């Protein structure tokens, strides 16, 4: 049994470990280890295409996470005040949204955007001489839409465990509904909101499938990696992959810590 | 039938009983007028009529689910009555949200804000005031409030670093710092252990005396209600059953429900033989006549009579019966020694089970009675009370 588990973990993590290992290789081959060096990291960081793709990815991830957090938190708050069938329906929709495969979201968003652009653009172009097209904007929208449900789930979970007596106590002590939200509700759910933001950020930062459909001319880091692989895998790609993975892992761990802290707080 | 007991006429007679209480000019600080609260099918509060007097310590007492919390929450503003009115200081407050009402509440589990220090918790109410109070004034008042509850050194502590009793005092300080017209307390002692509860009860009483704020306490602990309250409002099934001073309720319960709920009572059947201005001659099941209190306008012939276990006493059958006392033949079935008194359960011929509490001092002199002993239960005249019929 233990051996079996070990084999599963090896199967899961060995390829990743090997990529990370080979990224430190001194040789030119991406599939063997020849000495140790950091030269591929230096190459990657000095490659203007990589840096531009990285910057695009960070920008898209940050803005889409911001969008998802704002809209998702508001949706979670609205859902908490809801009862009965309405609520069950929305809960189900949110849960389904999380489970829909990225490729479906990608294609669906693409079709939706293209048809909207087709409708609006002639009219817009006539009025302003300017038209909508696929690009960072559509990517932010698509990522924000998808990760919003993650934020809703996290914030809803926290709201559920919030002691309603705290809200009443605040009310009782003379705080207006907005004052109560600002001084009691928000501080209590803030760790969950931040965790939601970070999860949304990593999702967008790592995403290839949705980006592939709706990014238009924009190149995010995963898209850049994908297109360079077609020209052959170099240790530079390994280095980029390792860095992306390290960054994502760090953010995910921070998100986990935040969630755990908010759980510890409600236990007290 | 019972809701009549809480009506205005009844309140008048209780005013009369309150002559020994400290304040003479007792105004009304809050009032329920036919206040009813429905939760779907559930009638949580049923036509509640009650005047709360300025400066009094009033308790809502009753079993679980009888509507105590609902009544309190209607005062706080967390529930609005489905029918009827709630008045605070003579103003109808039905539509007034909780944050505008001049009352504060101590919650059962304290509901302290976990992300704030003790001082921040206590100052919360003052920080909500508009126009804003100066920072130093808030700080001063927080220090004073903490001193009042003897937590001077705890200002910068976190909530989870405090014991249950300390948290309770923070909750108290957080409420009284706002100088509310009424302080509402929903089973504030329920989460404390017995010893701490006793201490907190005394502290709470001292606080109420020194602040002069009206306290309204919800409890299902009759001892707590009896020992702390100026008046107790007994509730059952969403209704007010009887309102009165602790002594009043103990000595003159109007119904079986109150007699059972406040202290212990023997309830026996009686046949009225004669009546005279508030007193009745009743024949018990064994044919013995006793003189008991009755309502002057009562006309029933078959009644329930309540008598407290400590009003009865035991003697051997061979002992003489004192004057103005009925002697009921009985046999001891259980005997429980409880330190300051001994609790006897007896089977009395033609009556059924009776409980008699014999004080330790009397037992020392006269000796106790063994299980199986044939004795006389002594029932002094004028100690029993005819109960109104329960609805
Ligand atoms: N928000 C609510 N929704 C539905 N029913 C409620 C609600 N609040 C109270 N009730 C019902 O109203 C009745 C009275 O409840 P309330 O909380 O006032 O009782 P209580 O006397 O305080 O009882 P306890 O001693 O258990 O606290 C109960 O039957 C309860 O189930
Ligand atoms: Mg209650």
Automatic annotation (TrEMBL), chain A:
It comes from the Bacteria. It is found in: Cell membrane. This is ABC transporter permease. Its main location: membrane. GO terms for cellular component: plasma membrane. It comes from Antarcticimicrobium luteum. Belongs to the binding-protein-dependent transport system permease family. CysTW subfamily. CDD domains: TM_PBP2. Residues 54-255 form the ABC transmembrane type-1 domain. GO terms for biological process: transmembrane transport. The keyword Membrane applies. It holds the Pfam family BPD_transp_1. Keywords: Cell membrane, Membrane, Transmembrane, Transmembrane helix, Transport. It is a multi-pass membrane protein. The chain crosses the membrane at residues 56-80, 92-120, 132-155, 237-259. The lineage of its organism: Bacteria, Pseudomonadati, Pseudomonadota, Alphaproteobacteria, Rhodobacterales.
